[in-house]
Design goal:
single chain; about 400 residues; mainly alpha; 17 helices; globular; disordered C terminus
């Protein structure tokens, strides 16, 4: 029985890495593509940020659509659309066409993450659900490094090679998704557009959830801003001595598997405390990296930073699930994912306007988001200890 679900999980992990890699693919080659398309670097950054905004917005469409038509149907339709769009991107030579197609590509890519998570939550045995979510979380994080590495290695005078490679993965994923079992009957009631927007309004005006969404907004944003800043400052060169940005990405890969370990901390400390510790640690190490970028301490701080971000992602998912009502939990998680990748899209353009200061701004925002989510249980425990 478990063997079948392990195959499903492998499919979802490989597909997640290939799909989400598109968000990070062009970050390390902005200057190169500016020459290819005879455009300004600012215009090339739009190829990432517009993809990101369409990607994040698509979550709010595909998730509810899968409630109505089933997870398998949406996975197959979305992967088919992504395959076709990616092939057309590979064949396009003009910047305006590529920008338009990247928006469509981002929207089609959004069909995968929320629907795959929902499939795991509904169809996997209960004992395998946390394992599935943890692996998928690691895949989403790992895609940031895979995407940048692929872009740096395969993009030279066009997007053709890397887009054709990814489209072949999407086609294989499409064929595999078509073999998935059909969706079981959904427990969520069908609602009309007015009812959906009423539920959406109630969710986005929930102050407890808004505080958590602020964490999501700056999590991946801080990560993307740091790498975009390092790439622009040290393009083709070294951060210090023999350390290149690509080396830093490789060193960070083991840190992306923190979601596989963080579950026991969530159980022991609670989701809110785990989020608070992870975000405060990420903020501190992000700030210190800018002060130590010419020494080996920078590498240590960077690995701690990436581990903290990787620990926070599944912790925030758990916190959103605990905070939201059962009746709108799926929508609450979709909004979390939407906010997470909106932040990543913002992070891609921040260095263009603020340079290294953008990293410091994100460090301050991480602190603010952590302080808005201080686990009061810590203070209650301290108070009771002194009282005794």
């Amino acid at each position: 029985m478990n063997t079948k679900y392990n195959y499903y999980l492998i499919l979802f992990v490989v597909s997640a890495i290939a799909v989400v890699s598109q968000l990070y693919l062009l970050l390390p080659v902005s200057q190169l593509l500016a020459d290819v398309f005879h455009s300004r670097t600012e215009s090339i950054v739009l190829l990432t940020s517009c993809f990101g905004f369409a990607y994040a917005s698509g979550f709010l469409f595909w998730g509810p659509l899968s409630d109505r038509f089933g997870r398998k149907a949406v996975l197959v339709a979305g992967m088919a659309g992504l395959s076709v769009t990616t092939i057309i991107v590979a064949l396009s030579q003009q910047y305006e066409w590529v920008l338009t197609l990247r928006i469509i590509q981002g929207f089609m890519a959004a069909s995968f993450p929320p629907v795959a998570l929902a499939f795991i939550g509904e169809s996997f045995p209960e004992k395998m659900r946390m394992k599935g979510i943890a692996w998928l979380s690691s895949a989403f994080l790992l895609s940031a490094l895979v995407g940048q590495t692929l872009g740096a290695a395969m993009i030279e005078d066009s997007l053709q090679n890397v887009m054709l490679l990814l489209s072949s993965v999407y086609i294989l994923s499409l064929l595999a998704c078509s073999r998935l079992p059909g969706s079981q009957s959904q427990n969520t009631p069908k609602v009309n557009a007015k009812g959906y927007f009423n539920i959406l309004f109630g969710t986005v005006t929930n102050l407890r959830l808004l505080r958590i969404y602020l964490v999501a907004l700056v999590l991946l944003g801080s990560f993307v801003t740091l790498y975009a800043t390092l790439t622009s400052q040290h393009a083709g060169g070294f951060i210090f001595e023999n350390l290149q940005v690509n080396d830093l990405r490789l060193y960070s890969i083991p840190c992306m598997f923190m979601p596989l370990l963080i579950g026991r901390f969530i159980v022991r400390l609670g989701a809110l405390t785990t989020v608070f510790i992870s975000v405060i640690t990420a903020s501190l190490t992000l700030f210190l990296q800018m002060q130590t970028s010419d020494s080996v301490v920078f590498i240590i701080l960077h690995l701690i930073f990436v581990s903290s971000i990787a620990s926070a992602v599944p912790s925030v998912i758990s916190l959103v699930s605990q905070t939201s009502d059962a009746s709108n939990r799926g929508l609450a998680v979709s909004l979390y994912t939407f906010t997470l990748f909106i932040g990543a899209s913002i992070g891609a353009v921040i260095p263009m306007h603020f340079g290294e200061k953008g990293v410091l701004y994100f460090s301050a925002c991480l602190v603010l988001s952590a302080l808005l989510n201080v686990p009061l249980s810590i203070f209650r425990k301290e108070k009771s200890r002194y009282a005794s």
